[in-house]
Amino acid sequence: MSLIVQKYGGTSVGSIDRIHNVAQRIQRLILEGNQVVAVVSAMSGVTDGLIALAHSVSETPNDRELDVLMSTGEQQSIALLTMALHELGVRAVSITGAQAGICTFGSHTRGRIKSIEPSLMKKYLKEGYALICAGFQGVTEDGIIHTLGRGGSDLSAIAIAAALKADICQILTDVDGVYTCDPRVVKSAVKLNEISYDEMLEMASSGSKVMQSRSVEFAKKFGVVFEVRSSLNHNPGTIVHEEIPSMEAIAVRGVSIERNQARVTVANIPACNSSYAARILTVLAEAEINLDMIVSNVAHDGLVRQSFTMHMSDLGRAQAALKPVLKELGPETRIETEAGLGKISVVGIGMRSHTGVAATMFQALADADIKIGMISTSEIKITVTVDELVLDRAAQVVHHAFHLDEINRLL
Amino acid sequence: MSLIVQKYGGTSVGSIDRIHNVAQRIQRLILEGNQVVAVVSAMSGVTDGLIALAHSVSETPNDRELDVLMSTGEQQSIALLTMALHELGVRAVSITGAQAGICTFGSHTRGRIKSIEPSLMKKYLKEGYALICAGFQGVTEDGIIHTLGRGGSDLSAIAIAAALKADICQILTDVDGVYTCDPRVVKSAVKLNEISYDEMLEMASSGSKVMQSRSVEFAKKFGVVFEVRSSLNHNPGTIVHEEIPSMEAIAVRGVSIERNQARVTVANIPACNSSYAARILTVLAEAEINLDMIVSNVAHDGLVRQSFTMHMSDLGRAQAALKPVLKELGPETRIETEAGLGKISVVGIGMRSHTGVAATMFQALADADIKIGMISTSEIKITVTVDELVLDRAAQVVHHAFHLDEINRLL
């Protein structure tokens, strides 16, 4: 008998029919002899509806109260899913974040999990119940309700799996697993059977939308093996786990892309101004702009060019934030911007032991006549910017160059 | 500075506009120098909507899960009302049933309050916050959510007032207070300035819809003085408190009526069958039929007639429940039924010291040519059944006979 923690997102429980469908999936696992803990999001649309309601009362609704309001969405879906299980004759109880013992800290609307006290869940499991837990929520030590922000239900599921020492945590979603690239862009993209935490993290941070980084980080920290799989069929998904030596046989695990990128360059900074980097980054951080690639170089005239990529929607705010400090940085300093960029990354822990990955990537792009803009690298990732108009083609040629359509055959 | 606990029902917070209106009422009390704890129901219609949702998943939704689902209604309204107070610049926080420390026991969907641990509420009050508490809900010692059934928010308010030793508990509703009779029936009905717990209880049990009996009982038990008043204006309402000697000056405090009554009579029971009453009452209790008046008499032939009143909608179930036991009771025993009845009661603690109350009531009805059916009396109440078609006129003549339109002038 395995203890399986599953997470169902808002789309999976988005209608009464879908709730019945999820109930059947859970029943199937139980009939196969497993214990099941299902972590559930709010029905799709419900959270947005509650936020709209809050905004109809107040232009700037208080975050503490938003948490009280939003957390009702998951509370409703756990009750309904539990009722649907009863209809099938399955013994099941709903469990709120507070009842799951999920203790949180940090800011409202983006709480963080401090600890889990799973004694009530263990009691019900021992009594033979399936547990239907509210994702996305917990309470502080004082019992004040916290929501966990975007991707919070994934985090709840992984944390509960860790606390209950589950055999596996399944993240049920609308895709079959993690692919070598987005299959809508690269038709020959292949579903990966497995991927390491670190690769999953780099995929997430470079545009793969399957999961938020922090859930993967949490799983890595507590050694929770999880599987990303579809809630629409019963195909095996992608297992995410600690890296094992055999995984290094593959240089590149996947290709991820991100659209709507912009570049901001602060040009002509005198190199003698040693604090320029700190000043620029502080200003942008205060404006709450998420920078991604950061590249700096000294030109032949001794002046520094520092460039960043960011989401296009942040471009205006970044320019406004930088303007007041240009003079401080140097009399000739100016801002250059470029919108309409895309980012393409190759990710793989095998890069550490394989040489020539960057060369293969750049040659493939050159052969397709695609110009590379900025370049940045980490130990297991190489990222370049290209014109957004050729991003899909860039993904196709790079995917092909690394034989990723054959990856599962190679293993 | 007074500590005022207020309860606002679902109609009072039934729309965004009304929520803003309630926020203004609370702000007004705070500006007058009071501390305020407002206990709030779900927005009108929300609870019914949630119950309908549950029934779309399951024909017989589980009560534990219904509680989880329904309690979200109040949780939403407290968040929204708190946001509305913030818009007015009032420091306020929302408090769920669990956070209010309302510890419950008993059945789901009709939980009972065991105790209140108000330390979190006291902490927030000390910090100068107005508290917006979810009515109708609490949690068991295990943290399992309970709702308190019909009138549960009134009960929450009175229990919180008791726990916080509030100066007054105001039950805000859509009527101005407790009237000598329903003003829609008796135009000259007068709002009472005060009424004793016992009178309020008898009024509630005999058809006055202002409050549920158990909230009044709870208030009596813990000595919570409360006021029933309108949420639509600022008029003083009716204060409900322990009886004081001066209240006995009035024989009758009010007249209450109840429609849609039916009578069931089990006739021709041999008087030698000593267990008949227990047998009949057990059968009806098992069918979950609420009996009201119970009258029994022995006819000249030595056969017993036992009659009950009940709500008309229970009549069919009562007949079905009694049928199988008729033979047990005696060979000649049969059931007679009469629908289309109304009940009229006069209530007053002054009855204990005033004689002739029944005579005055019956004479008034006789003068109006209204026939009396069953009669039952308690220490402070006399109830009779009449044809429902003449119920309103019966109320008018009895109200007039006791000079109730002048009651406040007499005090």
Give the helices and strands, then pairings.
The structure is a homodimer of 411-residue chains.
Chain A: E1 3-8, H1 16-31, E2 35-40, H2 46-57, H3 63-87, E3 92-95, E4 102-105, E5 112-116, H4 119-126, E6 130-134, E7 137-139, E8 145-147, H5 152-164, E9 168-173, E10 194-196, H6 197-205, H7 213-222, E11 226-230, E12 238-241, E13 254-270, H8 276-286, E14 294-298, E15 303-311, H9 315-322, H10 326-329, E16 334-347, H11 357-367, E17 375-378, E18 381-387, H12 391-401, H13 407-410
Parallel strand pairs in A: 1-2, 1-9, 2-6, 3-6, 9-11, 10-12
Antiparallel strand pairs in A: 4-5, 7-8, 11-12, 13-15, 13-16, 14-15, 16-18, 17-18
Helix pairs in contact in A: 1-3, 2-3, 5-7, 6-7, 11-12
List descriptors.
alpha/beta, homodimer, 411 residues, 13 helices, 6-stranded antiparallel sheet
What does this structure look like?
Chain A is of the alpha/beta class and 411 residues long. Helix content of chain A is 35%, strand content 27%. Chain A has helices at 16-31, 46-57, 63-87, 119-126, 152-164, 197-205, 213-222, 276-286, 315-322, 326-329, 357-367, 391-401, 407-410; strands spanning 3-8, 35-40, 92-95, 102-105, 112-116, 130-134, 137-139, 145-147, 168-173, 194-196, 226-230, 238-241, 254-270, 294-298, 303-311, 334-347, 375-378, 381-387. In chain A, strands 3-6-2-1-9-11-12-10 form an 8-stranded mixed beta sheet, with helices on both faces. A 6-stranded antiparallel beta sheet of chain A has the order 14-15-13-16-18-17. A two-stranded antiparallel ribbon of chain A has the order 4-5. In chain A, strand 17 (375-378) and strand 18 form a beta hairpin. In chain A, helix 1 packs across helix 3 (63-87), helix 5 packs parallel to helix 7 and helix 6 runs antiparallel to helix 7. Chain A starts with a strand and ends with a helix. The interface between A and B is large, with 38 and 38 residues.
